[in-house]
Write a structure and sequence with these properties.
Length: 255
Amino acid sequence: MHRGKGMKFVGDSRVPAREHRMPNIPKDYSEYPGKTEAFWPNFLLREWMVGAVFLIGFLSLTIAHEPPLEKIADPTDTGYIPLPDWYFLFLYQLLKYSFASGPYTVIGALVIPGLAFGALLLAPFIDRGPHRRPSKRPFATGFMLLALASIVFLTWESVATHDWEAAAKQGEIVEGPVVDKESEEYKLYQPSCAGCHGGDFEGVSGPTLVGTGLSADEVKDIIINGRGDMPAGAFTGSDEELQKLAEFIAGLEEE
């Protein structure tokens, strides 16, 4: 006779239940072939160990490989070539085609992705067959393969056609000039120029002042007469202070 079959178990209230508890012995799952392991702690502990190994490996990779950081974003740089994360490259490539860009951006950004993901959501409701084999479910299988092939193809095209050399150059982090911010020249620069050109000369509403290639006389002329969006007479100090400021700006070079 198998255990638990054809037998009835009757509890006796005179016997304390705690005397029969065996918390360290897993339950008997012999009635369920192939599932004889207790969930707690055996199965759950193994899952935690696998998760811990994965987490340690991931943390090791983040320590061994520095993140591909770029320089501080400049909203005035219209020549910047953006590149999204790898899992959005297929959408990024889709927006490069004429039928999904320019005046048709809405089609590439909303209509096509919306139809594709909407069809994926509706696939289980359209193909409601009981079969588990892919060959028995042609609609769901075919649509999933089409979606997968489209994503792989667009991602590959995005990687193959992207100008990686130009992207690396434009995002390169360049150390700015080392300047003594307690010096007289910087104190002349701070109230008159830092608002537009940044406290570290990186450029804010105005351009960067690092490596302009201008001489002190040319810088002085721009400060006095203005140029482009820069108004004339931005500096109100003496001629001697103006000369020091012009020489200071002209000497700013990248390290």
